[in-house]
Amino acid sequence: MKYDNVEQGIFIRRPNRFIAYVEIDGKEEICHVKNTGRCRELLIPGTVVFVCRSNNLKRKTQYDLIAVMKGNRLINMDSQAPNQAVEEWIEKEGFFGDHVKVRRETVYGSSRFDFYIETGERKIFMEVKGVTLEEDGVVRFPDAPTQRGVKHIHELCQCIKDGYEAYIMFVVQMEQVNYFEPNDRTHPEFGQALREAENAGVKILAYDCIVRKDLINLSKPVRVLLDKKKQEQVC
């Protein structure tokens, strides 16, 4: 996935979830934040960020904030990017084989899943979660409690019971991380639901990404650790 018209700036402040003030070419600009998560460890005053300038003159904000430097690590924080990157990956890399039909935003039960995939006789639902929270090479999700996320996991378990395949894909929006784990400190219910889903047959995947200021592409599998004892051994 590529971006056009990318510029560098300096983060100033974020008065609410949707907008941020960024210094661009010496001028303070209002930018749309394409991630409604907390991102407190990313959006620190003085941090280098990257913004995408829109060609739509009718927009209230001319820029979208899409990436941020965390030390020497570039992190994409566009919450819309993971779905686009996964769709491109499914179509190009052949993870589900050839002749794949992919449909976005498909309703099943009381949830709307990111992807419905058909290939041969296989019928698959997939939910995608973007991951931006990193600490010492360990990446976690979520960065804030998400009852919606728990609901999606329970619905995917129902898909398995009804004869479908089900996947949760955690898109790590950065490179060179050690492993992924659920953020039990922030939302233990999500972690428990994820473990129950794995036991029910839901496939749990995590992939890191090649991230540049103007692109994000899925890259390599990341180890997923759901067992708390194994997590403690790794630490």
From TrEMBL:
Residues 80-213 form the Sugar fermentation stimulation protein C-terminal domain. This is Sugar fermentation stimulation protein homolog. Residues 12-76 form the SfsA N-terminal OB domain. It comes from Candidatus Blautia stercoripullorum. HAMAP family: SfsA. PANTHER family: SUGAR FERMENTATION STIMULATION PROTEIN A. The gene is sfsA. Coiled coil: none annotated. Gene3D superfamilies: 2.40.50.580, 3.40.1350.60. GO terms for molecular function: DNA binding. Belongs to the SfsA family. It holds the Pfam family SfsA.
